[in-house]
Amino acid sequence: MVLLFATVGGLAIAASFLRFSLWPVAWIAFVPILVAVFQCDDARNAAIIGFVAGLATNVPAFYWLVDTIHRFGGFPLWLSAFFYAVLSAFSALQFVLFAVALRRVGPGPLAIVPACLWVALELWFPNLFPWRLANSQRDVTALLQIGEVTGPYGLSFVMMWAAGAVALAVTRGVARARPGLAGSLIAVAAVVIFGVARLGAIDRWIEAAPEVRIGIVQGNLAVQEKNDVHYFETNSATYRELTAGLGDDVDVVIWPESAITEPIPRTLTQLPPSFVNLLGIRSPLLTGALTYGGTPEAPQYYNSIVGIDAGGKVLGVSDKIILMPFGEYMPLGSVLPFLKRLSPMTGDFAAGIDVVPLDVPDVGRFAPLNCYEDLLAPIARRAMQTSDSEVLFAVANDAWFGPTASPYQHEALALWRAIENRRHLVRVTNTGVSDVIDPAGRVLLRLPMFEPAARVVGVRKLHGTTFYTRFGDVFAWLATFVSVAALVTGGRRR
How deeply is 365 buried, as exposed, middle or buried, from its count of CB atoms within 10 A (0-12, 13-18, 19+)? Predict the structure, then answer.
């Protein structure tokens, strides 16, 4: 029975990430898992419960990774499925650690320990796709505003606290759980009240800021066209024509990740006139591009974002910091060279060191995030700390994921960067989801998936620093401290 509870709970978590309209399910999804753990007699059984729950969550929620590993890295499908099985088992360890730790320390005062343990694991467990329980609440704007203080961890904490209190009521009676139920209810109310109050203030702040007109261009190129430099001229024609359709009422244009596949020398400061004409540059352009340095005998390639003004002058280059395994580099490739032979499509890119803000004269300062980097709060936060950029933007190529839930899951995780730093986040991808997210996490514009499209949208140039930008994951660190203290002292089991 307890394994059935674990399975149902894991499937409920997965459902809330596959269809975001099911956001209420995420609030109770952990209840059956917690009930199973609270009734568990030993650490071994707790580990089994956690492993089953973790598999039931990760296997269906991120099913798209099998085909992505196959297409992105060029691995045989059977090997891609094997990699996904290993990755799913590893990801399930997050739930194993949670269940074993909770079995040791129990629910604690006010049933608050499960929330502390889960948030600590969200902070520290190295998931390839760094999802948080709070990401499931994408469509409930008022709940998201706590992110300017705590990031997603504050909302994850409240959700797990509520689930823990309910599970305690189920297993040990309402009387025993009443303080936890009351405490979690007050916490939920506080998050909602804070969110509603902040939304009004944020709207007034946005309205008072100067506007910049941004053209976003989604080329919808097939994976084969995107990766083959022989398609460069036809691909450029696609982007040139879409960009021309934006008209002249645009301050800056953004193209997706690696839109320019003809490698550009990193020392180049001015594009040749023929190259400018080929790209059809009429306004300042921020675009994904391949760049190279090193020596002719040993060239080094980078996945970069390049700023170019209307005359072809290179305004700056920001390199991708977090490279994608199995596509841009091969994990353990230097130790096990045969892995590279199994995946001939895997690249050998060099990683950047830090985000380089791109200043567009008379337009504004933009902080670039490349692909996976808009999922990682520390990168966006560091970029804002060092540059006080006025707009965040991200470029990506989500064509690898096909018509799956992945592009929408990517969006749900990325929108927290806008809330945490209170900036507009402009996301431009090859096939979608391309969107514009305001500083409150509201999606102002979303281009259709798998269609070529170009739109002009006005965003505001904002200044100022949030608590989260300054201090980062203080809340999650506090949860970690409480969790460690509870584990060291042993806690109370029953």
Answer: middle
CA distances from 199 to 92, 192, 228, 438, 479 (A): 36, 11, 45, 11, 27
Paired with 213 in beta bridges are: 458
pLDDT in tens, 219-240: 998 776 656 666 788 889 999 9
Buried b (16+ CB within 10 A) or exposed e, 222-243: ebebbbeeebeeebbebbbebb
Give the global pTM.
Answer: 0.93
Alpha-carbon gap, residue 148 to 157, rounded angstroms: 15
Q: Is the pLDDT of residue 86 over 90?
A: yes
CA distance 56 to 19: 16
The larger pLDDT score, comparing residue 316 to residue 327, is at: 316
Q: What share of the chain is helix, strand, coil (3-state, %, to 5)?
A: 55, 15, 30
Per DSSP, the residues of 70-102 read HHHH---HHHHHHHHHHHHHHHHHHHHHHHHHH
- What average pLDDT is seen over the chain? 92
Peptide bond into 433 cis (omega under 30): yes
Q: What one-letter code names the amino acid at 206?
A: I
Rounded to 10 degrees, what is the CA torsion of 81, 398, 21, 454? -160
SS3 at position 160 = helix
pLDDT at 346: 62
Please state, in angstroms and rounded to a whole number, the distance separating the CA atoms of residues 390 and 368: 11
Contacts of 200 (CB under 8 A, 6+ apart): none
Query: 357, 286, 358, 349: which is closest to 320 by C-alpha?
Result: 349
Other CB atoms within a 10 A radius of the CB of residue 463 amount to 12
Closest CA to 229 of 278, 272, 262: 262
Which pairing describes strands 435-437 and 443-446: parallel, antiparallel, or unpaired? Answer: antiparallel
State the Cα torsion 373-377-382-387 to the nearest 10°: 80
Who contacts 281 (Cβ-Cβ below 8 Å, separation ≥6)? 271, 308, 310, 312
